[in-house]
Amino acid sequence: MKTIARIVLAALALGAPLVPAIAAEKKQAGPHGGRLIAGLEPRAEFFVTADKKIQISFVAADGKTVVAPTKQVVTVTMGDRAKPTRLEFARSGDALLSTAAIPAGKDLATVVQIKPSADAKIVTDRFNLDLSKCPDCKLHEYACTCAH
Ligand SMILES: [Zn+2]
Ligand SMILES: [Zn+2]
Fold it and tell me: How far is CA 113 from CA 17, 22, 77, 99, in A?
C-alpha cells in the first residue's frame, strides 16, 4: 500500500485537476443522497454521515438497492496536501464506515480509492469535498447532480 500512498501524494502535489471520473453521463445521486462512484460493479456511494464519518455503500444497477460489501477495500486520503489524512474503513451494517472522522476544513481535496477485489484494479475518484447544500438539487455539493 506504500506505493499507492506515494502515487496519491504525487497526484496531490502536482495539483491534478479534480474532475469527476465520469463527466458526460447524466449524474445521479446514491440511495443516501451521496456521490455515486462509477467504474466498478457494483458502484459505490460516498456519503458523509451526521457525525462526519465517511460511509461507503455499494449500489446495485438500479441505483437504489444497497448491496453488502464483499471484498472491497476502501481508502480515502484528504485534506492538507503536505500532510494528508488517510482514512481507513471497517464494515458497519451494510456499508463500510471510516474508523475516524474527516478532518476539519472547507473544500478538502479528497481522493477515494476502492479496490473491488484482490486482483482487480483500483478505482480512483478525486474531488473537493464541498459540504454546502446545492440550492438547486438540495444535495450536498459533493454529490450535486446539476450541470453546473
Ligand atoms: Zn450544485
Ligand atoms: Zn445540485
Answer: 16, 15, 8, 16
d(CA 146, ligand 1 centre) in Å: 6
Angle at 79 between CA 38 and CA 101, to 5 degrees: 80
Q: How far is the CA of 48 from the centre of ligand 2 (A)?
A: 16
104 near 82, Cβ under 8 Å? no
Residues 68-82: what's their mean pLDDT? Answer: 94
Per the CB < 8 A criterion, the answer to whether 143 and 47 are in contact is yes
Q: Judge if the upstream peptide bond of residue 42 is cis by omega within 30 degrees of 0.
A: yes
Give residue 148's pLDDT. 85
Residue 2 or 92, more confident: 92
Query: For 29-70, what is each residue's pLDDT tens digit?
Result: 999 999 999 999 999 999 999 999 999 999 999 999 999 999
Alpha carbon of 8 to ligand 1 centroid (Å): 26
* Residue ranges of domains in the chain, CATH in brackets: 2-143 (2.60.40)
CA of 60 to the centre of ligand 1 (A): 25
